[in-house]
């Protein structure tokens, strides 16, 4: 009878340890995901603000030599690459 109780206690203890470790992995994974999202949003906001600031402060000659479509394509091109980066970060 005592052996059965000791085995059940040991099994329960290891289940608690593995459950706690699993919970810790899940919490850390979620925290890492939220942190990566926050950093990505911050970086994309800074890139966008820098681009807008540079275009708005550009001399008028810039707009005479570059068509509006080319400037718009540059914004779109950067937008596509910033959204493609998270897929390649872990590889």
Low-confidence stretches: none
Helix-strand topology string: HHH
Q: Give helix % range.
A: over 70%
Proportion of residues in β-strands: under 5%
Shape: rod-shaped
Going by helix content, strand content and strand pairing, the class is: mainly alpha
Number of self-contained structural domains: 1
Count every helix, treating DSSP H or I runs of 4 or more residues as helices.
Answer: 3
What this model shows, in words?
The chain is rod-shaped. It contains 3 helices and no strands. The protein has helices at 2-56, 60-65, 68-88. The protein is mainly alpha-helical. The chain has one domain (2-84).
Index terms:
91 residues, single chain, rod-shaped, mainly alpha
Task: Describe the structure concisely.
With 91 residues, the protein is mostly helical. Helix content is 90%, strand content 0%.
Topology:
Layout: H1 2-56, H2 60-65, H3 68-88
